[in-house]
Design a protein that fits this description.
Length: 130
């Protein structure tokens, strides 16, 4: 919003609050008795803000839309592109074709083994003395 006296631009809520708090005195130039109805929208600034917001929205749209390469397989070709077996997966297969996944208990046992202190070798009395 623009003040009618000095033409400075403020946000709508800010200038209204400033005028009401200061007994309708303009915060920019000090002119008294500025009515709230005399405030005018800043059309030039509004146009610039809208153009900026539109530009940012267009940038977001461009960054969201993926570019499709010519060698990318098309999903609408009717072929299922997922592997039919576990051969394409990264899980190691066992002899019977099942994956070798550990249970939570096995994983906990293994991690506890790694945390335990290594066994210390006892030295017999008299050994190592020269």
């Amino acid at each position: 919003m623009k003040t009618p006296c000095c033409g400075k631009t403020y946000c709508h809520d800010c200038i209204e609050n400033a005028l009401l708090d200061s007994d309708l005195t303009c915060p920019g130039c000090g002119t008294e008795n500025i009515s709230l109805e005399a405030l005018k929208p800043d059309e030039e600034l509004k146009t610039k803000i809208n153009a900026y917001q539109e530009e940012k929205n267009n940038d977001k749209q461009r960054s969201r839309s993926p570019t499709v390469a010519a060698s990318t397989p098309q999903a609408d070709a009717g072929e299922d592109i997922r592997p039919a077996t576990r051969e394409g997966s990264k899980s190691p297969a066992s002899v019977n074709g099942q994956s070798k996944k550990r249970t939570a208990d096995e994983a906990n046992e293994k991690s506890l083994e790694n945390l335990s202190a290594p066994a210390m070798k006892r030295q017999k009395s008299g050994e190592g003395l020269a």
